[in-house]
Design goal:
The chain is α+β, with helices and mostly antiparallel strands. The protein is about 25% helix and about 25% strand. The structure holds FE2/S2 (inorganic) cluster (FES).
Length: about 180
Amino acid sequence: MKRKSKEATPAMENAPVEPGRRRFFGWLWAMIGLAAVAEFCWVGVSFLLARKERSAKAAGARIVTAGSVDTFSPDTVTAIPSGQFFLARLPDGGFLALSRTCTHLGCSIHWDAEKSRFQCPCHGSSFNLAGEVLSAPAPRPLDCYPVRIENGLVKVDVAAPRRRDRFEPDQAARI
Ligand code: FES
C-alpha cells in the first residue's frame, strides 16, 4: 500500500493564495505602514515642541537682574558674575553693562578702583568707566549689553554684546 506524503506537491506550491488570506495580509501591511507613519509624525512633533520650549527657556535666561537701582552709586563699577559683565554707573546716573572681554585679543579685563579704570593684563590696554579706550593696543571701546530699568531694577540682556566704535550718551540706560 502506498503512503500519502505530507510534503507539498509542486501542484500545491503553484496553487493561488486564497483571496481571504491575501486580503488579511494586505490589511496587516497597511496597518503596519500607518503605525510607522503615525510614529514618525509623533517623533517629529515631539522634537519641534521640545525645541520651542528650549528656545523659550533660553530667551528667558538672557535677562540678568543686576540689582535695585539704589544699590549702585554714581561713578562706580560693580562686577556682576552671574552675567559675566561689569555694571558701570556713570556720574550722571546712567547705567552701562560692559563686556569683560578686551577688544584687542579677548583677554578678561578687571576694574582697578584705585586708578578708576579697566585694565587688561595681557598687553596693557585700559578703558575708562564708560568703556572708552584710554591706552592701546585695544582698537575700540568695550562692547556693551542692552540695559533697561524696570520697577526700580536694573536688567541686562546678555544674549549678545553690542560692538561700538565710540561711547555715545544714549548707550546708557537712565531712570
Ligand atoms: S588682549 Fe587686552 S590688550 Fe591685548
